Amino acid sequence: KPAPIALTLDVSKAGPTIDRHIFGQFAEHLGEGIYGGIWVGKDSSIPNTRGIRNDVVAALKDLHVPNVRWPGGCFADEYHWRRGIGPERKPSMNANWGGVIEPNTFGTDEFFDFIGQIGSEAYVSVNVGSGTPGEAAEWMEYMTADKADGIGAERAKNGHEAPYKVAFVGLGNESWDCGGAMTPDFYVDLMKLHARFVRNYNPAQTMSRIAVGPSGGDTPYTEAVMKAWKDHSWAWNIEGLSLHSYTTGGGFPVSQNSADFGEKEYAVMLKDTLGMEDLVKKHGAIMDKYDPEKKIALVVDEWGAWYAATPGTNPGFLMQQNTQRDAVLAALNLNIFARHADRVRMANIAQMINVLQAMIITDKDKMLLTPTYHVFHMYVPFQDATFIPVNFDAGSYAYGGVTLPRVDAIAAKGKDGKTWVAITNIDPEKPATFDLSAAGLKAGKAVGQTLTAAKITSANTFDKPNTVSPKPVTVKASGGHFAITVAPASVTVVSLEQ
Ligand code: AHR
Questions:
Q1: From the CA of 73, how far away is ligand 1's center (Å)?
Q2: Whose CA is nearest to atom 6 of ligand 1?
Q3: Closest Cα to atom 7, ligand 1: which residue?
């Protein structure tokens, strides 16, 4: 029987706040991400509030989603907001995603209704690729100006007198690729124009501007945007730099199967996802050069697993299965963001519903919660918690020539005053036993939940929606130590109380 892994918490070295915004979501007009997933229309037989499905809202409320990034993605750089307001909507083409008609029935006012219903904040991406600074500025005016203002009055006429709150604005999306294939210098000029004119008129909300940054390990955008920021003037500023990095287990075009895979593919995907740590360090080091005070946040506003589309579905809709492997993958990324909480202050998993590594999958009136949803739910106590360093020997797990750490863990002091520990057992074969202890923490009560599954391929289906769902976990407390055994390929979150 192997010795337990000694995990000690250094409560005296409490670190930065784990910003709740690292648990952000991304909802793009893509496949059934919006239509079907959120919006069913007021006349639908699916229970809804002003067209927005009630079951999805209830599930998302429980996640305390801090912010929703919308309307894209690649879609954002071809979005013309005026087509999506008022009584007469003007359909357009969704050229990026399946070439389908975009009805524009879910527009600005419906988005704010949706985030209001789930209790979240707005992260709106403006169209830098095919729009103009003027169009983006007028959209901001529509959203945030007083009803006495010309464009604010239009919003009021559409039924929304009070200005909306825009907490974050994205200045373009992937401008190095689908957003216009721009050189870094060309983007920087356009970005400055937008940062200057995309104004927030609502004094009740501070708005952060997020510039397009790197793709994966590419550094030219990081260098160019940060260099420009160092010389910013009174006329413009930004507060965040975006990083996009998907886990594909082999680059693009994607080929990994989301539902049917073996241990080798499990190890390959998790190895790939752990690369997020190096990316954050690499871009963080460049940012430190220009911004040692860490004023600019690194915003990982697209991350998650991207597999080959589920056979028989429209490949442009990016539908995939979500398994226990994805739960482990999500936890590992959240742990990385928490470890770099001083710089990574926001992140958005791609995507919220029905697309890529989704929280929720719907099929007409049916809805299921994925293993990834359950991880986000279990991690709610880490929102705005204070990071506590942990010491442990992660050991190693190897399969088919791929070597990974065997376990991972983070800890934090929650806003509720409790000490929270999250443990991931990456090893899909062996359980892991931990001996948790912390100076100054007497072992009292410890409670928690664990997400385990019979197989790494286990998933929730409409027939069996609770195949993978959290269960209470037993923690033995005595003499200042907490003993816990976690199952293979599992995610566990416990609170230690005095
Ligand atoms: O999330 C799907 C797409 O991935 C987004 O639209 C784009 O920004 C990225 O390439």
A1: 5
A2: 73
A3: 73
Location of structure tokens 């809804």:
48
Residues 210-223: pLDDT tens digits?
Answer: 999 999 999 999 99
How many angstroms does the Cα of residue 129 sit away from the middle of ligand 1? 14
What span, in angstroms and rounded, lies between the C-alpha atoms of 430 and 427?
6
Mean pLDDT of 285-294: 98
498: pLDDT strictly greater than 70: no
| C-alpha to C-alpha distance for 405 and 291, rounded to whole angstroms | 32
Q: How far, in Å, from the CA of 127 to the mean position of ligand 1?
A: 14
Identify the band that residue 178 occupies on the pLDDT scale cut at 50, 70 and 90: very high
Give the nearest ligand 1 atom to 318 CA: 2
User: Which contiguous run of DSSP H or E holds residue 368?
Assistant: strand 366-369
How far is Cα 349 from Cα 24, in angstroms, rounded to an integer? 7
Band (pLDDT 50/70/90 cuts) for residue 142 is very high
Domains and CATH numbers, the chain: 5-11+388-497 (2.60.40.1180), 18-384 (3.20.20.80)
Q: What is the pLDDT of residues 36-87, one digit of tens each?
A: 999 999 999 999 999 999 999 999 999 999 999 999 999 999 999 999 999 9
Residue nearest to atom 4 of ligand 1 (CA): 73
Average pLDDT along the chain: 96
Residue 12: the pLDDT is 80
Best of 25, 26, 28 to mutate for ligand 1, by most ligand atoms within 8 A of CB?
28
Cα first-last separation, the chain:
30
State residue 497's pLDDT score: 77
Rounded Cα distance between 454 and 460, Å, is 12
Active site residue ranges: 174, 302
Distance 232 CA to ligand 1 centre (A): 29
| Pocket around ligand 1 at a 6 A CB cut-off | 28, 72-74, 173-174, 178, 302, 350-351, 356
Q: Whose CA is nearest to atom 5 of ligand 1?
A: 73
Distance 246 CA to ligand 1 centre (A): 9
Edge-to-edge strands, sheet with 390-391: 390-391, 5-9, 432-438, 481-486, 476-478
The interface pTM score, or ipTM, of the predicted complex is 0.99
